[in-house]
Amino acid sequence: TSAQIGVTGLAVMGRNLARNFARNGYTVAVHNRTPARTRALVDEFGGEGEFIAAETAKEFVAALERPRRLVIMVKAGEPTDAVIQEFAPLLEPGDMIIDGGNAHFADTRRRERDLREQGIHFVGMGVSGGEEGALHGPSIMPGGPKESYDSLGPMLEKISAKAKDGSPCVTHVGPDGAGHFVKMVHNGIEYADMQLIGEAYQLLRDVAGYSPAQIAEIFRTWNQGRLDSYLIEITAEVLSHVDEATGKPFVDVVVDQAEQKGTGRWTVQIALDLGVPVSGIAEAVFARSLSGHAALRAASRGLAGPKASPLGEAEAAAFADRVEQALYASKIVSYTQGFHEIDAARAEYDWDIDLGAVSAIWRGGCIIRAAFLDRIRAAYDARADLPSLLSDDTFAQEIAAAQDDWREVLVAATRQGVPTPGFAAALAYYDALRAERLPAALTQGQRDFFGAHTYRRTDRDGSFHTLWGGDRSEVSS
Ligand code: 6PG
């Protein structure tokens, strides 16, 4: 017998993905650098389906039916290149290498190009949903050549999560690095969602005066409404958890320094290169890095500021409703920014990415899965060339209804000294886009003053320069 798919790299993500294929009736060849892991998988989970345990790279490749489909699930960066170098010489034209790690899309583009010369199809595939998702159904974002999807797609559709309407959470996102790019932006949005939820929590705690257990209940209620999402759901779980050792709320015994592995940071770095304002995502990345500056924070602890004084009971409940509005409006903005970045990449790299399809495959399986994504899909389905999610009537109306509360929440946060960079950046973005005139005109004037950088006029075509050091007359340039 031969295997329809192979997985090499059997840490938890790889192992669970291999099991998922096997549970769905595929024969799966499994391989790991240290063979003990391969044996452990087969010993422990062999009963779940058909596995072929391969000790060596040669055995692994020989076990695969042609065209071979070889999934690599190793650390992004050098380990991925090392595995590709090990396997590529053993493969034949038409075979596929599928990278399911969190690779940087530029690496994926390079690998795709190099392997194409050898006739090997390289598929950079974003996989979201953590360990549970890998096992029970992730959201899958494959890039690479379209032909590869003809043979790979049906298998991925089988193992992927299904949205509520039953459709599989996988699509051919676009060529070469498009899949990993979209996964990267998914993670950037994930960071923003988490930051906004964190700010909502802090406000409910410090301004409304609720306990973590009470806040967990508030999140449970929100999860019944338009904020219905995996991240809100797990937030309630984390907040209601009590530390066994101390009897304190778990959230109070965890060191408040958030870590990151890099995908959120990449989202912002690339956005800077593409010239896309992803301020909400950027604030989320910066908030994590600020939290980690322990010495700087310790040195700043005595700085002056207001002391938050919690509200009374009735006011607290009303405030919580406002926070829900602020959170929802800010969430619309961060998704707007994330989709803008994908749209810009589509133009820059000539990727034919369907934004509606991207939102559709994020409806299930992934970390940002949410009822909300079905509405984004509907917005793009109604109008594929939507300039921005904010120009969708439904979202615009929702923000219109939320904005008074959104502003009030920021007033309260500012007055009481509770940091809300995500909410604030989102509102500033919204107000800047709405503005009739921006101070960018003044910026242009300053640039022209000190560097003769020229400016355009509102009433005439062309570029102009004012002779600032002379008689201040205008010349066209
Ligand atoms: C997912 C997650 C996954 C991983 C993140 C965590 O979609 O399943 O995004 O990829 O959990 O990389 O990122 P940080 O460690 O940077 O928070």
TrEMBL record:
<keyword id="KW-0521">NADP</keyword>
<dbReference type="InterPro" id="IPR006184">
    <property type="entry name" value="6PGdom_BS"/>
</dbReference>
<protein>
    <recommendedName>
        <fullName>6-phosphogluconate dehydrogenase, decarboxylating</fullName>
        <ecNumber>1.1.1.44</ecNumber>
    </recommendedName>
</protein>
<dbReference type="InterPro" id="IPR006114">
    <property type="entry name" value="6PGDH_C"/>
</dbReference>
<dbReference type="Pfam" id="PF03446">
    <property type="entry name" value="NAD_binding_2"/>
</dbReference>
<dbReference type="GO" id="GO:0004616">
    <property type="term" value="F:phosphogluconate dehydrogenase (decarboxylating) activity"/>
</dbReference>
<feature type="domain" description="6-phosphogluconate dehydrogenase C-terminal">
    <location>
        <begin position="179"/>
        <end position="469"/>
    </location>
</feature>
<dbReference type="InterPro" id="IPR036291">
    <property type="entry name" value="NAD(P)-bd_dom_sf"/>
</dbReference>
<comment type="similarity">
    <text>Belongs to the 6-phosphogluconate dehydrogenase family.</text>
</comment>
<dbReference type="InterPro" id="IPR006113">
    <property type="entry name" value="6PGDH_Gnd/GntZ"/>
</dbReference>
<comment type="function">
    <text>Catalyzes the oxidative decarboxylation of 6-phosphogluconate to ribulose 5-phosphate and CO(2), with concomitant reduction of NADP to NADPH.</text>
</comment>
<dbReference type="InterPro" id="IPR006183">
    <property type="entry name" value="Pgluconate_DH"/>
</dbReference>
<dbReference type="InterPro" id="IPR013328">
    <property type="entry name" value="6PGD_dom2"/>
</dbReference>
<dbReference type="InterPro" id="IPR008927">
    <property type="entry name" value="6-PGluconate_DH-like_C_sf"/>
</dbReference>
<comment type="pathway">
    <text>Carbohydrate degradation; pentose phosphate pathway; D-ribulose 5-phosphate from D-glucose 6-phosphate (oxidative stage): step 3/3.</text>
</comment>
<comment type="subunit">
    <text>Homodimer.</text>
</comment>
<dbReference type="InterPro" id="IPR006115">
    <property type="entry name" value="6PGDH_NADP-bd"/>
</dbReference>
<keyword id="KW-0311">Gluconate utilization</keyword>
<keyword id="KW-0560">Oxidoreductase</keyword>
<keyword id="KW-0570">Pentose shunt</keyword>
<dbReference type="Pfam" id="PF00393">
    <property type="entry name" value="6PGD"/>
</dbReference>
